[in-house]
Amino acid sequence: MSAGLEYSSSFSVLRTMFYFQLVIMAGTVLLAYYFEYTDTFPVHVQGFFCYDKTFSKPYPGPEENSKVPPILVYSLVTAIPTITILAGELMAFFMKSESTREKTIVTADCCYFSPLLRRIIRFLGVYSFGLFTTTIFANAGQVVTGNQTPHFLSACRPNYTVLGCHSNLQYITERRACTGNPLIVTSARKSFPSKDAALSVYSAVYTVMYVTLVFRTKGTRLTKPTVSLTLLCLAMLVGVVRVAEYRNHWADVLAGYFTGGAIAVFLVTCVINNFQHAKPSPPPMRLRRPESVLGMPMVALPCVESPLEKLQGDLHSLRSHDHQPYRFPATPDVLIPSRSISSEV
């Protein structure tokens, strides 16, 4: 009866935790969707100076015309970590011997879960959560700050005559100052931090830490550094292209780097413990039950040798020693002179 109650309670706890994680993941995805594709969170409208050269770069065109379009960035940050984790876990699992493959108990004592599938779901699940979290942080920063891109004035197309701009020191705060396409103007107000840079660095740092901590390369010391530096360079290249095409400032790219890298390091070190196996807790130590006298259990107390018992032990050892024949120690042969002692006297 107690075993059944224990099983039902453990199963209910695990089921509750699973549903709770699903709710968190669904909420994260939904929040990222509202930030990205809806106007639920309006962008903060900042003013600008007339003829400001910082925001007067030429309009580079829509995001799809970029050398690193968003569809390419999203595909790479999804495909590269997924393929790397799948390949690494499959190699690590099949290279182990049958004796070292253990089953992990998930629901009390009835069901078993493959360690391979458990690790893959865990690592990819945490990565997906971090990917949506990075998107939320980047979009929230863009919405709250409302910093303009380097091509903001080219997209805004303000009418300087109507606004009365006579010098570069005049600051414009009117919300209807822009005459350009409202969608392009809204996009030009989302510069800080760079979302593409944040996603690229997050994906690269997460994958690099997985390769460094999980892969075991024998016979070569340059494989892991080469792969890691290649991934990091690709992530840095995304930010460089964003700056070169006048889509972001250097400060925006650096802030995106910091955001993505910090989230990746936090998830790897604090959530999944550096991709290590979960160490089983040691079994509790049990004291041996002493022999009982007349059916009553005895209390385990430290044993102290009495002086009388010690004296009896010493006498017994002396008696046994006296009955043994005495043996002289082996000495080297000594040459005795032929003359006797009396003759010398």
Automatic annotation (TrEMBL):
TM annotation in the entry: 12-35, 71-94, 124-144, 197-215, 227-244, 256-275
GO MF term set: phosphatidate phosphatase activity
Keywords: Cell membrane, Membrane, Transmembrane, Transmembrane helix
Principal subcellular localisation of the protein: membrane
BP-aspect Gene Ontology terms: phospholipid dephosphorylation; phospholipid metabolic process; signal transduction
Keyword set includes Transmembrane: yes
Subcellular location: Cell membrane
Residues of the Phosphatidic acid phosphatase type 2/haloperoxidase domain: 124-268
Entries under Gene3D superfamilies matching the protein: Phosphatidic acid phosphatase type 2/haloperoxidase
InterPro entries for this protein: PAP-like (IPR043216), PAP2/HPO (IPR000326), PAP2/HPO_sf (IPR036938)
Annotated Gene Ontology cellular component terms: plasma membrane
Statement: the UniProt record of this protein carries the keyword Metal-binding: no
Membrane topology, as annotated: Multi-pass membrane protein
Family indicated by similarity: Belongs to the PA-phosphatase related phosphoesterase family.
PANTHER family given in the database record: LIPID PHOSPHATE PHOSPHATASE, PHOSPHOLIPID PHOSPHATASE-RELATED 2A
Name recorded for this polypeptide: Phospholipid phosphatase-related protein type 5
